[in-house]
Design goal:
The structure is a homodimer. The first copy, chain A, is α/β, with parallel strands linked by helices. Chain A has 18 helices and 10 strands.
Chain lengths: ~500, ~500
Amino acid sequence: MSEIGLDGRERDMKGGDKGGTDDAGGSALDADRFEAEAMVLRESLLNAQFDLADHSNRAVLILLNGADGAGKGQVLNRLYEWLDPRTLATLAYDINDRRDLRHPPAWRFWRDLPQRGRIGIMIGSWYHTILLHRAAGGADKETFHARIAETNRIEDMLDAERITLLKLWLMLDDSETGGTAINPAAPPGSRNNPLVREWVEIDTKKERKRLMRAARELIRETADCRVPWHIVRADDPLARDLTVGRRLLDTLQAAARWQPVPHGLPPSRPRRVSNTKPVLPTLDLTQTLDKDRYEWELADAQARIFAATQSKAFRDRALVVAFEGNDAAGKGGAIRRLRSALNPVHMRVHPIGAPTDEERARPFLWRFWRHVPLRGHTAIYDRSWYGRVLVERVEGFAAPAEWQRAYGEINDFEAQLTRADYIVHKFWLAIDEDEQLRRFEERKETPHKRFKITDEDWRNRKNWPLYAAAVEDMIALTSTKAEPWTMVESNSKRFSRVKILRTLADRLEVEL
Amino acid sequence: MSEIGLDGRERDMKGGDKGGTDDAGGSALDADRFEAEAMVLRESLLNAQFDLADHSNRAVLILLNGADGAGKGQVLNRLYEWLDPRTLATLAYDINDRRDLRHPPAWRFWRDLPQRGRIGIMIGSWYHTILLHRAAGGADKETFHARIAETNRIEDMLDAERITLLKLWLMLDDSETGGTAINPAAPPGSRNNPLVREWVEIDTKKERKRLMRAARELIRETADCRVPWHIVRADDPLARDLTVGRRLLDTLQAAARWQPVPHGLPPSRPRRVSNTKPVLPTLDLTQTLDKDRYEWELADAQARIFAATQSKAFRDRALVVAFEGNDAAGKGGAIRRLRSALNPVHMRVHPIGAPTDEERARPFLWRFWRHVPLRGHTAIYDRSWYGRVLVERVEGFAAPAEWQRAYGEINDFEAQLTRADYIVHKFWLAIDEDEQLRRFEERKETPHKRFKITDEDWRNRKNWPLYAAAVEDMIALTSTKAEPWTMVESNSKRFSRVKILRTLADRLEVEL
């Protein structure tokens, strides 16, 4: 077996005369032929990389997987040799770093997602945990398949959100027997002492075999999905690198050529996509609360929320609250009563306005993932990811295909929070058209409320039936047992605030 | 003493008839007069807040300090009542959260710095630690004063970088005796059981007294500085809130009115600002290395760096390396050899290009602070904060006052990293004009290097003497014992790479 230096390049050259086969099953590649082919490939790769950067329509994310010793670190170094490092980033994670457990597992992947026009190389991707659980016996067949199905949905979403995935599995000849044992005394960068040690928990030959079996199962399971795996024979390092380079070239060229499809006009009729019975007409908006009871109930709910979120049990949990509602329904006032019941150290309110350019260059959920709280903390979203199926749908900012797939994407997002022991709750604050008009007029008159009313509010008001249909679909398609919507009758601000805070206090006490 | 509800508002109203004095030393404020004054104040505050947001020339950062029980939480809630929450953020920190110790202490303040046009309210600011060390006896007078002096310099920098600070100290009548003892059984939000408990370590009456003595010392020390403290009498909650509101109004109005001063033309001559002997002419650029020795020395240095950064001793340290140099001096190639000697899990390379809009809206150091690595990790900056005193100086992107103050600002930044046990090293890769020309011509010819040469490179080349003067000043003014510059003779790429990697290997072995 060839000895590979830390740097990869210089000694790889000498490794060409050793055994192994290239991807096409031909004979071993000699260094001269490699050098010649690499020079041509490299120029094409750079051309494609610069095209991608110039158009910035898509990002490319390479998932670099395989047994330790198959050359993940060497391939990484090779790509840094071939590509322009200025639009390239490595995303590598220490799976055992407890610091990373303070957020849901997917958080760090989202945090590091390359923006459009750029390339990311990810080592130890979301497949790491899935395979490890399967290999270590922690996940039965059903769980394993459910996780793969979810992963496929998320990868479809990333693809639709303009992230092209290139999934590579570096396969060694001895993969059948579970790869090679690690020997820290071997030269750094060699097969027995690889640069990247992703599978530190996999120790015995039996465990290595189970891991490889899980990998083959995974690859088989996902053969038909939109983003397939590419198996790269890894025994001959030079042939391996050329194969990876060629696959990447195809990927980069396709991503650079990609153009968004214009989606036509916004829908002109309030056509629903779900067929449940409408819930908005069933709300009794006349409900109210007298001042004394309001003050008492509010203070009581606030004290309960304060106690719950300061409790020991909450330290490993987290609270994510999304506020949506008609314009002037009282989101701001309700959020203020909630935030004053929380320790400011452990809480953030995120008002969702126009996205920044960093946010615009990434999938729509990115800006919400970035504010997902640490364990023990609360994040309050003043408007949220539901904008996708509300304003973006109604105003035509999102194509029909985009907002229609968003229901499932949102459910997957929230399910990932729940699975990480986060408590997710969503409030829709409902008022009727008369009450909204009254509040708009009042805002015009009241000096300190004047700022709360804009031309856009009057425009939105004209689309009331379109918004109502969007709300019905949203409630029907995203209300789940673990991530419920609470409909809040908000014609009375007192009733609304108390209902919200009591609902949260009850929820917290049930969860903790 | 008045009992204050969690929410602040409703019960504050009833607290007005209790004892206490307003800031001007007058009599207690009754609820009606408060209500009337607050309504006027609130409209002015909103006007100023919207002006600030519209112009986005400055950010406003309120540092809310004082003994626990003085009403930090209540003032916070009041400001949320008065202001528009959409451009308001709370920055509050749990000083004992060990998760925050994985970065230098200032990192989280930088992370959360409001962008221009916005308002941040910070609780437990950088003064928390300074005062706590002093009160607990951990900092002698000299250390205390040195920290205050550094803080003053950093606040001057923030001010110059368009962050207006409003430093408030809420002072209770009984502050002389160190405030009130905490009683968790008291109503939440009352003086004995405040919403914000910043000084949890301060327990006994003696400790409370020492804290107050340190606070008075701090406020006295900083009386003459550009950003003074405002002492707010806190015994009467209503008067306290009005005083805070008025101070904030002045601050917001001044910040909203602020206009940048045009700085005139870029300097036309390579005038130096330091008077040291030039170092560039003393470099022996003829130094080279034969291929065999290069390969051996490179591999040796890489192995040493790999071992050092994977060692147990490095887990609580971190490495920050900045690469600067003439165009075509070989930064990319050197960085590639360094990165392949590091575990990709614990390392990131940050190529510094044009700032994003999120970066542009904040002080120039923000984009570098955001990439400061976790402990145990390495951050490699491919170009760095030194752009401020190199390209920005020479091309006139920064005003003379801006780049001239940057030397000290950079020294303070790096000193903060060093004090947090980070290892900071800076490399200048020097080639001469002939070698640069040769490399530019070669890049034009070589297919895969064509991308590395742009019109800008030829333009920069014409300013060679201006850049040389800027480099001399940079080396003279920012080379320190703890954060050294290494000058790298780079006409020979082999010599250059080996010098860089050996220097880092030596440095790491000395530090660990």
